[in-house]
Amino acid sequence: MKILNSSLLTATLLFTVACQQAYDVKTSEKPTNIAQPISFLAFGDGGYSVDYPKKKHIENPRNKTQFIEKEKEDWLEDYRPIDEFDHAPIHVYADTEIATEASGAIPVGKAMATLCKQRNCEFGIQLGDNIYPDGADANDGKDDQKRMDDLILGPLLPLFEEESAFIVYSALGNHDWKTSRQGVALQTQWMGKKKNFHMDKQGYYSYTQGEPGNEVEFFVLDTNMLLAGQTFYEIPLNPDGSEGELKVALANGTAKLEAHEEHEGPKNGEDKAQIQWLKNGLANSTAKWKMVYGHHILWSIGGSKYSEGHVLRKLIMPTLCQYADAYIAGHEHDLELLTDDCSLYPAAKREDPLPLIISGAASKMRGKHSPFADHQEKYYPEYELIWSKSFVWGFAHVNIDNNTDQLKVDFFTTPRNKSGTLVPEYTHTFSYRKDNVYK
């Protein structure tokens, strides 16, 4: 047997170590037991443009001063603190003095595209009110194909230019339903012809993202259909911001029956079928993570949607608490992060609170109701407000990591100057909701 000289032995050892290091680097880049995180954009209420104003702004035009004064009048009428008064940026139409609220749709689209250059964005979820003010089929003399190109597609073009295969999975909101069922059908048909959008014909559906064994299943609700199947009243808040009582409001005539147009009412029990579909789908899903989203909120601090929140919680919260890992909504034109500890639903054998994400500031902005927010914290121990930001344009980015069993939510805004600049606002991480059955 030959004995290697010291120089040759040293060279051989160095080569062996180098090969091992190269192998370690290569295998660490693509380890076989590491699941890829799933990241997506969440944005809602993005369908507003000054080119499609509300009817009341056409029939009762105001100049900038008058417009702001009306905003202040409405603010005080809701018992909001005057020192917190603010309003959206004002747009004045060319060659007139007519003013209206400016839109943040284009700036938000630019900001989302900027974010997706910096981090992974695999797809987007659109949280309803994709068309303002009255959905398609509005009988306003405007072409519906152009309307949808302008309001749904236009603001998101920067995203699609960055990634041509980017897909947005859309939900329906109350404004999408406002005109007719034909209007809803026109929107779903339009999306069916666009490679970057998806919405099932019936308005609620599910889809799966991720690798086998580490999938995330998304359940998309038509919450307007669910609420339209219920009879309930909008009850004004008390001067201190606490919730009004139905009996008192009925007696003094301030209770307002929530009236849905005839076409919005569920047909042949389709609202009940949707609730059963959600329960069966969540219960039978084999995905590790189960995310649910729809337009309407379950909790919020806006102060004007709380009656709807009560009704929707009664309809779906027991199912969400038992099976879901988060609920994402729009409807309130702000950014909020909340939880419900699910203590009112003992059948829900989950250890952690249910995360509730609100991202409804993709084209409009709205303020919070501070006294109402304080009231909720005091009277609803199951509820917790983690963070919020009002009077902003913005969106959320969600990252689900199966390696750490964590769900991370990042909120971003963009300035009122319409530059589309990306502004990081807040980050929060939730742990996977463990099942007490396995404790």
Characterization of the model:
The protein is an alpha/beta fold. The protein has two domains: 49-102, no CATH class; 104-438, Metallo-dependent phosphatases (Purple Acid Phosphatase, chain A, domain 2), CATH 3.60.21. 32% of the residues lie in helices and 21% in strands. The protein has a seven-stranded mixed β-sheet. β5 (168-170), α7 (181-192) and β6 form a beta-alpha-beta unit. The radius of gyration is 25 Å and the shape is globular. The N and C termini lie far apart (62 Å).
Distance between the termini: 62 Å
State the share of residues found in helices, binned by percent.
25-40%
What is the CATH homology-level superfamily of the largest domain? Metallo-dependent phosphatases
The third-level CATH topology of the largest domain is Purple Acid Phosphatase, chain A, domain 2
For the CA atoms, what is the radius of gyration?
25 Å
Query: What's the total number of strands?
Result: 18
Sheet with the most strands: spatial strand order: 6-5-4-1-16-17-18
What is the molecular shape? globular
What's the pLDDT, averaged over the residues? 91
- CATH C-level label of the largest domain: Alpha Beta
Quickly count the domains. Answer: 2
Strand content: 15-25%
Largest sheet: 7 strands, mixed
Q: Return residue spans where pLDDT drops below 50 for at least 5 consecutive residues.
A: 1-31
Given the helix and strand composition, which structural class is it?
Answer: alpha/beta
| CATH architecture identity of the largest domain | 4-Layer Sandwich
Order of helices and strands: HEHHEEHEHHEHEEEHEHEHEHEEEHEEEE
SS field, number of helical segments:
12
